[in-house]
């Protein structure tokens, strides 16, 4: 039998041990963490919707009329009117014919990718894609070819040398780097080489594009360019679950083939109703997006002036590149000593030597919140003796 205790101890020694923290408050910038007040810069609640009264009320009203549990899978008796209304709202929001509501983003990626490719097919996956995309590719049993991050020339060579059914899958916004995929060029390559393009825009929806319609909207791309788009509702929309949107034919195909949709109990109707309300609010949230944009610009300007190394991101995901896992943990702990919660991201989530603090900004943060973060970063840099980038 494997020595599991020894493996855990090794992770501790390497600075890679992970621990859960207990939050005893609603999701918002000012949290109670393990019984202590903290100012958080590690949530994906980009628009500050997770504790919004109007969205909470939409869930509460549906609880009264529809009850709590989904009861069964969508294909048995679990497909409620609230689910249908959410899917119609998602389709309209994304500019597509139809949509499906999945229980989680992880399940959406695994179900969609493994349904769209199988034995004898080839999937082309960006090397920095999210773990759920990687696992969806593995589950498909298709041949997997990984191309260097954002390298469309390398991808073009791979596509040109491959026969049969081809699927290209990428994040829209990369969750650990915050940068955008070269979506327009990916769409062009897929048209040229008769490949199906699938984009997971979990971190783009709500934040980028007109009305928060995501990175595809920001690039001027529609359903003909990107036939399948995936999004999560647990980030900028502040609720839970995920969706996939595309043509009616494609959604019908996924109803027949996506195992993570077919064989799981549907999400509570109240969550669907809250998500519908949230999407509608997000479309009208230009003021929040403008405030968030100002926070991002100020954060980048002032942290770089301190000597911190930032990654090339214009999104709310602002990684501070540190390098070693131990050093990243030291900075995270130092910030916590000042009441600031920013998590250190270490291997295997990121490559060796690229450990970082993943700062995420929200429209719910105020300028005063950002003042506190910047002041703490300046002090902690000196406290731990962090050298210049």
Automatic annotation (TrEMBL):
Residue numbers binding pyridoxal 5'-phosphate: 105-106, 175, 203, 232
Record has DNA damage as a keyword: no
A Gene Ontology BP annotation from the UniProt entry: biotin biosynthetic process
Modified residues (N6-(pyridoxal phosphate)lysine): 235
Catalysed conversion reaction: 6-carboxyhexanoyl-[ACP] + L-alanine + H(+) = (8S)-8-amino-7-oxononanoate + holo-[ACP] + CO2
InterPro entries in the cross-refs: Aminotrans_II_pyridoxalP_BS (IPR001917), Aminotransferase_I/II_large (IPR004839), AON_synthase_class-II (IPR050087), AONS_Archaea/Proteobacteria (IPR004723), AONS_Proteobacteria (IPR022834), PyrdxlP-dep_Trfase (IPR015424), PyrdxlP-dep_Trfase_major (IPR015421), PyrdxlP-dep_Trfase_small (IPR015422)
PROSITE patterns assigned to the protein according to its UniProt record, in alphabetical order: AA_TRANSFER_CLASS_2
Pfam family, one: Aminotran_1_2
Residue intervals of the Aminotransferase class I/classII large domain: 37-377
MF GO annotations: 8-amino-7-oxononanoate synthase activity; pyridoxal phosphate binding
UniProt binding sites for substrate: 18, 130, 349
Cofactor dependency: pyridoxal 5'-phosphate
Keywords: Biotin biosynthesis, Pyridoxal phosphate, Transferase
Pathways involved: Cofactor biosynthesis; biotin biosynthesis
Annotated EC: 2.3.1.47
Cited PANTHER family: 8-AMINO-7-OXONONANOATE SYNTHASE, CLASS II AMINOTRANSFERASE/8-AMINO-7-OXONONANOATE SYNTHASE
Assembly and oligomerization: Homodimer.
Main function: Catalyzes the decarboxylative condensation of pimeloyl-[acyl-carrier protein] and L-alanine to produce 8-amino-7-oxononanoate (AON), [acyl-carrier protein], and carbon dioxide.
Family classification: Belongs to the class-II pyridoxal-phosphate-dependent aminotransferase family. BioF subfamily.
HAMAP family to which the protein is assigned, alphabetical: BioF_aminotrans_2
Protein name from the UniProt record: 8-amino-7-oxononanoate synthase
Source organism of this protein record: Tamilnaduibacter salinus
Gene behind the chain: bioF
């Amino acid at each position: 039998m494997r020595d599991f205790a020894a493996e855990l101890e090794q992770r501790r020694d390497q600075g890679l041990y992970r621990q859960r923290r207990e939050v005893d408050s609603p999701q918002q910038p000012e949290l109670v963490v393990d019984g202590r007040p903290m100012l958080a810069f590690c949530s994906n609640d980009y628009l500050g919707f997770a504790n919004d009264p109007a969205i909470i009320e939409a869930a509460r009203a549906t609880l009264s009329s529809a009850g709590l549990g989904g009861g069964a899978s969508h294909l048995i008796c679990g497909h409620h009117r609230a689910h249908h209304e959410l899917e119609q709202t998602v389709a309209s929001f994304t500019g597509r014919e139809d949509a499906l509501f999945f229980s989680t983003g992880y399940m959406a990626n695994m179900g969609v990718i493994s349904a769209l490719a199988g034995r004898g097919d080839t999937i082309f996956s960006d090397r920095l894609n999210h773990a759920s995309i990687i696992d969806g590719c593995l589950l498909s049993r298709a041949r997997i070819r990984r191309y260097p991050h954002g390298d469309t020339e390398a991808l073009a060579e791979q596509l040109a040398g491959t026969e049969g059914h081809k699927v290209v899958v990428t994040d829209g916004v990369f969750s650990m780097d915050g940068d955008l995929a070269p979506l327009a060029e990916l769409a062009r390559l897929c048209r040229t080489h008769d490949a199906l393009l699938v984009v997971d825009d979990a971190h783009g929806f709500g934040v980028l594009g007109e009305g928060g319609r995501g990175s595809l909207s920001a690039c001027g791309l529609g359903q003909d360019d990107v036939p399948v788009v995936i999004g999560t509702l647990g980030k900028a929309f502040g609720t839970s679950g995920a969706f996939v949107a595309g043509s009616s034919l494609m959604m019908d195909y996924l109803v027949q083939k996506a195992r993570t949709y077919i064989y799981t109990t549907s999400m509570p109707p109240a969550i669907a109703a809250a998500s519908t309300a949230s999407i509608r609010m997000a479309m009208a949230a230009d003021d929040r997006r403008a405030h968030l944009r100002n926070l991002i610009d100020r954060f980048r300007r002032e942290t770089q002036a301190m000597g911190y190394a930032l990654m090339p991101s214009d999104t709310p995901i602002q990684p501070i590149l540190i390098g070693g896992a131990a050093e990243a943990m030291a900075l995270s702990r130092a910030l916590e000593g000042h009441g600031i919660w920013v998590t250190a991201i270490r291997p295997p989530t990121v490559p060796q030597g690229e450990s970082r603090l993943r700062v995420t900004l929200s429209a719910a943060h105020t300028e005063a919140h950002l003042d506190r973060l910047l002041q703490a970063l300046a002090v902690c840099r000196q406290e731990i003796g962090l050298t210049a980038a």
